[in-house]
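User: Quick sanity check before I run a bigger batch. Here is a single chain. Can you write out its predicted 3D structure?
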Amino acid sequence: MRILITGAAGMVGRKLIARLAKDGTLGGRKIGAFDLHDIVPPQAPVLDGVSIGVHTGDLAAPGATANLVAPRPDVIFHLAGVVSGEAEANFDLGYRVNLDGTRALFDAIRLAAYTPRVVFTSSIAVFGAPFPDIIPDEFHPTPLTSYGTQKLMGEALLADYTRRGFFDGIGIRLPTICVRPGKPNKAASGFFSGIIREPLSGHEAILPVPRSVVHTHASPRSAVNFLIYAAQIDSAAVGPRRNLTMPGVAVSVGEQIEALERVAGARAVKLIREEPDETIWAIVKGWPTRFEARRSRELGFAAETSFDDIIRVHIEDELGGKIPS
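Assistant: Done. Predicted structure follows.
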């Protein structure tokens, strides 16, 4: 089996590579080759008997996607994208990467004339206010950001290319992935991780929105599980509606902080400083809150059931199982 991963240098991409390298198989088939692509060189695992190609560049550049698809990968994980805050700040870049790059990849698969499984990471940003208390699967996507609009266009392309038989696509609408390891990025949602990650490491964190903000989260571990499950799910069971809202934990920012105190104590909470940011608030207040995610749950997708568990996953996976003293 050959696997192509775009966005392979990103946080989720790195964790997906590590998981697949550890498992050695996907859907019961031995992995014989990886192709890893990003705008910067992805870190390739060292695996005996496995061919690994590392590719860099712009997916939207002429010929880039045709070269990636030429070896006919069996499964393609399309994770590449410009994050929400950056897509809003840089209109041209957001559309070039999130729309043009996606269209170029999908068209390269069409022209290669074979039918791989394509797993596309979309986002709950495809939904826009006003919202009901719990958003059902049938709620109409009306994004209120450029990022959400770009992801919705990708969803529509995936559904149509799948309908036409060009590939077998599954789109997964990720909740906010929290707690993200490493340094903050330009995602408007970055503070959701920051107010947990930084205090756990003994550093101050900025909270730019009210504590009343409610949002849905899943851990990086769950994100990888979603991707792997989507790569092997029965296509017939999914049916013609190819884009699925993933399950997650819906909590307010205040409840996030309460969970942090339960897990790490009051000292960690004292490192959170509230500093309103109108730019971030203007984006966040148009985001969805709670999701039913009935279809994905019935199909077998699963995530954490409490925010305490999400914090514990971060401690286990990133901090060696212990909170630094």
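Residues 91-112 form the longest helix (22 residues).

User: Great, the batch can go ahead then.
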